[in-house]
Design brief:
By secondary structure, this protein is α/β, with parallel strands linked by helices. It has two domains: 8-128 and 258-277, 3-Layer(aba) Sandwich (Rossmann fold), CATH 3.40.50.720; 132-252, Dihydrodipicolinate Reductase, domain 2 (2-Layer Sandwich), CATH 3.30.360. It has helices at residues 17-33, 78-91, 105-118, 132-140, 182-188, 194-202, 207-210, 255-266; strands at residues 8-13, 35-41, 71-74, 93-96, 122-124, 146-153, 174-181, 212-218, 224-232, 238-246, 275-277. Helix 1 crosses helix 8. The chain starts with 7 loop residues before the first strand and ends with a strand. It binds nicotinamide-adenine-dinucleotide (NAD). Nicotinamide-adenine-dinucleotide (NAD) binds at residues 14-19, 42-43, 75-77, 79-80, 97-99, 125, 127-128, 191, 194-195, 252-253, 257.
């Protein structure tokens, strides 16, 4: 239910680190940036009380259709993308903050289909990915041959589903935790591989199964995360970028990624019916 006014009305789903950052920024700077809040939802409503105006708190997510909204920002959990993604896209554009959810090929396909059907855009935030649009252009021109992303972080910055990092000790140095397809990696480290998932969406011809990823624990990285991207095109074309993303010990998300999300949100209008990396 996109509104015709020029203000982008935003529904925020999730009020953790990213949700609080985005809501705070909309409340503070939104009018100047042409962005306003339609609603904020969190599974624990108490967390919202006193921080978000009462009339903007949505207590039951299934009633989101009651609020006029141009874009819904999911900054919660891949499960919410799975449970509500199709409904969200039937009503508004969707900025998927947890794109690791899209490693499920059925869900990915259904969401892309819903975007086409409803003329809404499935926005994928670049997050900590550098050069995502260039990767997408190479992909769209049919000359992307391979893509590899390595994310290296201090062990305290990983949130893994298994116990492959339960025994780390300070000073142990570098340890490769996983190397292989992003499709297999996403379920193992859903909170740590959103950048790789964004890359896999940009590289649609390779897909999650064709994009290679590596996660590395490194106790030397106490001040920043490192994101390396290696792109291979045809006729010897290649690009290698190394991004240092300042991050405190224990932080899953690098500090520059918060501003990256804000910038992603500001472009969420007018790309109807497709996937758009922003
Ligand atoms: N695209 C990117 O570059 C990028 C960067 C950082 C985080 N993320 C992803 O965005 C999402 C939010 O990140 P964050 O740092 O704000 O996380 P967070 O843990 O600080 O906050 C998540 C919020 O969602 C709630 N939540 C968790 N699981 C839930 C579930 N199953 N159902 C309903 N609510 C649930 C939590 O209570 C919390 O309020 C995560 O999925 C994270 O992996 C993506």
């Amino acid at each position: 239910m996109a509104t015709s006014s020029s203000t982008l009305r935003v529904g925020v789903v999730g009020y953790g680190h990213l949700g609080q950052f985005l809501v705070g920024r909309i409340l503070k700077e939104g009018s100047g940036a042409g962005v306003s809040l339609a609603f904020v939802w969190n599974r624990n409503t108490n967390k919202l009380k006193g921080c978000v105006p009462d009339d903007l708190i949505l207590s039951d997510l299934t009633t989101f259709t009651d609020r006029k909204c141009d874009v819904i920002v999911e900054v919660c959990h891949p499960q919410i993308v799975k449970d509500f993604g199709l409904q969200f896209l039937s009503q508004a554009h969707l900025l998927v903050g947890s794109p690791s959810a899209l490693s499920d090929p059925t869900l990915n396909q259904k969401l892309q289909q819903a975007a086409r059907q409803h003329g809404r855009t499935l926005y994928i935030p670049s997050g900590a990915l550098w050069g995502g649009l260039d990767i997408q252009r190479l992909n769209d021109s049919g000359t992307l041959k391979a893509l590899f992303i390595r994310m290296s972080k201090h062990p305290s910055c990983f949130r893994l589903t298994g116990d492959m990092l339960s025994d780390w000790t300070e000073g142990e140095g570098r340890r490769v935790l996983y190397s292989g397809s992003v499709a297999e990696l996403c379920p193992l480290a859903p909170n740590n591989v959103n950048t790789m998932a964004a890359a896999a969406m940009a590289a649609g011809a390779l897909g999650f199964a064709g994009v290679q990823g590596e996660i590395v624990s490194d106790t030397a990285l106490s001040d920043y995360h490192v994101v390396e991207v290696e792109v291979t095109g045809s006729n010897g074309f290649s690009v290698h970028t190394v991004r240092r993303n300042p991050a405190k010990l224990g932080a899953v998300t690098g500090s520059a990624t918060y501003n990256s999300f804000w910038n992603s949100l500001l472009v969420c209008q007018g790309h109807g019916g497709r996937v758009h990396l922003c």
